[in-house]
Amino acid sequence: MEHFAPHSSVFEGWYSKFDLPSGGHVALVICSVPNATSLPPHMVSFTYYPKSGSPIFQREHWVSSIDHRITGPDNAFELLVPDMGSMNVAADSTTTYDLSCSDWTLQARTRDRTPWGNKKSTPEGWLVQLPLPLHWHVHTLDSSCDFKLDIPSLDLPASDQRCVASVHQEKNWASSFPSSHMWIQARNGDRGIYIAGGKILGVTAYILGYRSPDLDFDFLPPFAMCVLGISPSMKVDHDWDSRAFHISVQGLWRKIVVKASAPGDRGWFGLGSPFPEGHRRNFCTESFLATVEVEVSDRGWWGWKERRREVFEHASLEFGGEYFPERGDKGD
Known about the structure:
This is Tocopherol cyclase-domain-containing protein. By secondary structure, the chain is mainly β. Helix content is 1%, strand content 58%. The protein folds into 2 domains: 1-175, AttH-like domain (AttH-like fold); 177-332, AttH-like fold (Beta Barrel), CATH 2.40.370. A hairpin with a 2-residue loop joins β13 and β14 (203-211).
């Protein structure tokens, strides 16, 4: 199964985060709940996020439909949004974005792809075969792309209007978002840390991947899992009031500690999230001003020995569901 391509599920959502030369970002979400019962079924969310984190330009479009079309062999497909445009993914994963409305226009085309890893194609590994209520796929950790952007109401930096940007692509699908979740995405050159997880099926579970040229590993359940708040291998703490998240996971021979935080007074924007009844508005919130500290240790004869310590700035940090007490429809 090609995980980035359309499936038959309660919902499917594609997330693209573009990093721009100015230090700003664009977050684009295209998501559908085809058989939604009471809330909006189809969402295109566009967010332009300047380097400073303010002011944030955001539009959530509750469109009439989003058509998923297979356009060729080898899982080539297109997401077609009436009166707005499309996202087209070729068999070689080249992705072309061509979306426009009165408030904004985005055109982009990827040049390459950095997949999740050499040993497996998706963060979940064997877990992707299970009928979980939510699946998480990272299609590219970092792809360079030719990029054009226009927002008539903003005086965009010249470097963001037409440039070579980089894009991180993900997809979620299955039944619904979890009742509570966290998400981290941070990259600097050829190094990165990627985390997603929360409460699912009565347990707290996470998937974590660290990437660098000389150190490349993942942690999944059962190591990255708590039952009734108890785990011999994982500790996790989330604190919305201080906008901070901490997770520690260890296996037999390796341990990673990740600490993430972001300013509480600026730089946060809400996103709708898919559930069987449709999209719940403002169910999660993201900041691209996070600082993420990573410490990796290996087990030696006399205990843990530090192998890597680094800090990522201007990283992505997301609180969702019960971890985001201010969630809920803002009435916009």
